[in-house]
Design a protein that fits this description.
YefM-like fold; 2 domains; alpha+beta; 63% helix; 19% strand
């Protein structure tokens, strides 16, 4: 994942000045909080979070559908292996 350096905020600064983090999210769409100089947390706008959750749910449904299809197509083999 590529992170724009202008969105990076050290943990201590985020703790001391959260309004800066909120302003950064408003301006750029996200803020990346560093812990021990490594990206650790992402703060995003709530609408963005909703979109992320919707995408995750859609992906989960696709995976479940493919899984169900594979099981149905190979049920005979699975039953044989279960003996």
């Amino acid at each position: 994942m590529t992170v724009e350096t202008s969105t990076l905020v050290p943990m201590t600064e985020a703790n001391q000045n959260f309004s800066k983090v909120a302003r950064l999210v408003d301006e750029t769409g996200l803020a990346v909080i560093l812990k021990n100089n490594k990206p650790r947390y992402i703060v995003v706008d709530f609408e963005e979070y909703d979109e992320i959750q919707s995408a995750r749910a859609a992906r989960k449904q696709k995976v479940e559908a493919v899984t169900d299809q594979l099981i149905a197509e190979n049920m005979e083999a699975f039953q044989e292996l279960a003996k």
